[in-house]
UniProtKB/TrEMBL annotation:
<comment type="similarity">
    <text>Belongs to the LipB family.</text>
</comment>
<keyword id="KW-0808">Transferase</keyword>
<dbReference type="InterPro" id="IPR004143">
    <property type="entry name" value="BPL_LPL_catalytic"/>
</dbReference>
<dbReference type="InterPro" id="IPR000544">
    <property type="entry name" value="Octanoyltransferase"/>
</dbReference>
<feature type="binding site">
    <location>
        <begin position="149"/>
        <end position="151"/>
    </location>
    <ligand>
        <name>substrate</name>
    </ligand>
</feature>
<dbReference type="InterPro" id="IPR020605">
    <property type="entry name" value="Octanoyltransferase_CS"/>
</dbReference>
<comment type="function">
    <text>Catalyzes the transfer of endogenously produced octanoic acid from octanoyl-acyl-carrier-protein onto the lipoyl domains of lipoate-dependent enzymes. Lipoyl-ACP can also act as a substrate although octanoyl-ACP is likely to be the physiological substrate.</text>
</comment>
<keyword id="KW-0963">Cytoplasm</keyword>
<dbReference type="GO" id="GO:0033819">
    <property type="term" value="F:lipoyl(octanoyl) transferase activity"/>
</dbReference>
<protein>
    <recommendedName>
        <fullName>Octanoyltransferase</fullName>
        <ecNumber>2.3.1.181</ecNumber>
    </recommendedName>
</protein>
<comment type="pathway">
    <text>Protein modification; protein lipoylation via endogenous pathway; protein N(6)-(lipoyl)lysine from octanoyl-[acyl-carrier-protein]: step 1/2.</text>
</comment>
<dbReference type="GO" id="GO:0009249">
    <property type="term" value="P:protein lipoylation"/>
</dbReference>
<dbReference type="GO" id="GO:0005737">
    <property type="term" value="C:cytoplasm"/>
</dbReference>
<feature type="site" description="Lowers pKa of active site Cys">
    <location>
        <position position="146"/>
    </location>
</feature>
<feature type="domain" description="BPL/LPL catalytic">
    <location>
        <begin position="33"/>
        <end position="219"/>
    </location>
</feature>
<keyword id="KW-0012">Acyltransferase</keyword>
<feature type="binding site">
    <location>
        <begin position="73"/>
        <end position="80"/>
    </location>
    <ligand>
        <name>substrate</name>
    </ligand>
</feature>
Amino acid sequence: MTSPTFPEIKHLGKADYDSTFAAMRAFTDARTPDTRDQLWIVEHPPVYTLGLGADRGHLLAGASEIPVVQTDRGGEVTYHGPGQVVIYLLMDLRRNKPGGKLYARQFVHKIEQAIINVLQAYNLVGERVEGAPGIYMAGGDHQGAKIAALGLKVRGNGCTYHGLSLNVAMDLAPFSWINPCGYAGLETVDMRTVGAQAMLSDVQQQLAEELIRVLATNE
């Protein structure tokens, strides 16, 4: 096995969800113990994705205007669209890394911490909510609103795919046509709504680099 290396960042640009989903599975199927981990940065056209146990009843009036894709990640229904950072984490949690081997719960915690850290750089305070993966606004007019979502697939061999989304500057209307992550009436915001003006490309790169940093430490 090769010595630990940091994940490679790959910029996929704008790409449809179906082909990216297929590519993630193909990459993971073909992995060997020496395959370098990768972070895929992508921006999707409008799409709803369903987790393995998702209830289609959470798709509300208006949702029929947007394609729906069944996935193999955890979680309920979520929305991806332009103006949103999506990063897929194609990782092997069982290999030795600078911060040590990871368990799934630690992995989720580190991903959430990276999002919190990037929001803080824009003077936004995000927080975790017990039992509800993702990041929520910790104060202000939109306290409790969801700004980032998280959904992963961890195979039995410790290899992961799927990942996270962080809302930067979006048309938020499609979130009102679902119960986001299964929660009726949950407000969803983006960074622009809560007062942070940011370029999507800047946040994409910052979050990818922060993920690598946090994953490589014991914090």
